[in-house]
Design brief:
The chain is 0% helix and 41% strand.
Length: 316
Amino acid sequence: MRVFAIVLLPVLLLAQQAIAPSNPQQANPAAYPISANAPAATQAAPQDDVEWVCPMDKDIRMKAPGKCPRCGMTLVAGIPDEREYKVELSTKPRVLKPNEDIQLKLDVEDPDSHKTVQNFEVMHERLYHLFLVSQDMQFFRHVHPEKQPDGTFLLDAKFPHPGMYRILSDFYPTGGTPQLIARTVMIPGAGFKLTPAKLTADVEPKDTENMHVDLRLDPPQPLAGFKTMMFFKLTPTEGLEQYIGAWGHMMSASSDLIDMIHTHPIYVNDPDDKSYKELQFNMIFPRPGIYRVWVQFQRKGVVNTAAFNIPVDELK
């Protein structure tokens, strides 16, 4: 699990895009499991003094090569030093308008060579995951740009209304470490404002496209900086399927979009009577406040997205 912070500064309301970087902080890597094949170059012959580590769940350490028991990723002999890869985000057209076709271009730069990265590892059946979130949190998309011959990635998108949008890139460059890099896009227009979303607590059950989702928290009142276990009970179970390599996907964002967290379930419970399936996610919310949490599950080929607002207190 990774948390990304930005500082929102006043901006001129120009009919031009604005893109701002953010500095990532890793809060709890054990809560961010993914499934992919680690680069062969990082592997070595088994040795008694070699520790084999999962690139994503770094608390998973073994004395022999193999697969991570939590996320299925190939263990590697040691982990490369953490390096942030630069993501250049450009758009076509440059002048952005709400609810019009926009092409996003993402160019990942190697921090050493400063050239476009050409090779990426597959994570959950895709080379690149992208999350689009509006400042009012009414718009959320989990999408997958297409890799081009020059190594860049393209995505066609529409932003429904003026405002600020966070663009979160999730990828794993070969020979590097998995990355979550956030950028910001401004869509000018009538009613544009830089005001954080005003969220109220909402942990009530949700009926989505073709399933029912119940949420249970442990502890019932989450505390900033401490682990919160989140149990999602899914019904009906007929036709439940993995969605791009996992039983569920979760994106969490603070109301000011400063902290953004992407994670997957660490445990799946199938009761004997098969009346429901329960998925456990672990989360460490970095600050007090209300967080919008989107969870995605697939049933009979339909992706279901449910949103909850989780109130987080500080330890007193």
